[in-house]
């Protein structure tokens, strides 16, 4: 197979193909903000892809390798890619990743979902959900 000359990571090829079908909402699920919205997957797409490719014995280290199998991956992971997602504003998205890491571990999905629901409930009752100053240094990593 051809060497990956542009050093593009495989998950970006998957996201490029999948993003046309994403259902990104017009407001943050937690606080209803309409600014700086991002899509959060409960399942790390990177971890899903790497685990899947390893299990199947696929070489996704090259552009040709990932392009040959990305449609198969997307089809097999439709639920994780399209259903188990939330539209979050950047501050809430960054706060979530500050807790669960850049690529949340497999198995943390129920905890992430519970955190999102708790933050939403706090918002409904008028409580501050994100201490922006506490996470300021983290914001720059995700913007």
Q: Determine the mean pLDDT.
A: 87
Instruction: Walk across the major sheet and give the strand order.
Output: 1-2
Shape: elongated
Please give the count of helices. 7
N-to-C span: 34 Å
Total number of beta strands: 2
Largest sheet: 2 strands, antiparallel
Write the layout of secondary structure elements.
Blueprint: H1 10-18, E1 37-41, H2 45-56, H3 63-76, H4 78-83, E2 85-89, H5 90-100, H6 109-124, H7 136-142
Antiparallel strand pairs: 1-2
Descriptive key words:
143 residues, mainly alpha, two-stranded antiparallel ribbon, 7 helices, 2 strands, disordered C terminus
Structure, described:
By secondary structure, the chain is mostly helical. The protein has one domain. 52% of the residues lie in helices and 7% in strands. It is built from 7 helices and 2 strands, in the order αβαααβααα. It has helices at residues 10-18, 45-56, 63-76, 78-83, 90-100, 109-124, 136-142, and strands spanning 37-41, 85-89. It has a two-stranded antiparallel ribbon. The radius of gyration is 17 Å and the shape is elongated. The chain starts with 9 loop residues before the first helix and ends with a helix. The relative contact order is 0.18. Residues 1-5 and 135-143 have low confidence and may be disordered.
């Amino acid at each position: 197979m051809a060497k990956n000359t542009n050093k593009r990571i495989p998950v970006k090829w998957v996201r490029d193909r999948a993003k046309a079908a994403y259902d990104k909402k017009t407001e943050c699920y937690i606080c209803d903000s309409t600014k700086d919205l991002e899509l959060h997957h409960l399942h790390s797409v990177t971890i899903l892809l790497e685990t899947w490719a390893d299990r199947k014995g696929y070489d996704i280290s090259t552009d040709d390798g990932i392009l040959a199998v990305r449609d198969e991956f997307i089809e097999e992971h439709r639920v994780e890619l399209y259903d188990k997602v939330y539209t979050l504003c950047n501050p809430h998205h960054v706060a979530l990743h500050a807790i669960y890491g850049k690529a949340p571990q497999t198995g943390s999905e129920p905890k992430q979902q519970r955190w999102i629901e708790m933050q939403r409930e706090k918002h409904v009752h008028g409580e501050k959900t994100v201490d922006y100053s506490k996470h300021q240094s983290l914001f720059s990593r995700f913007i």
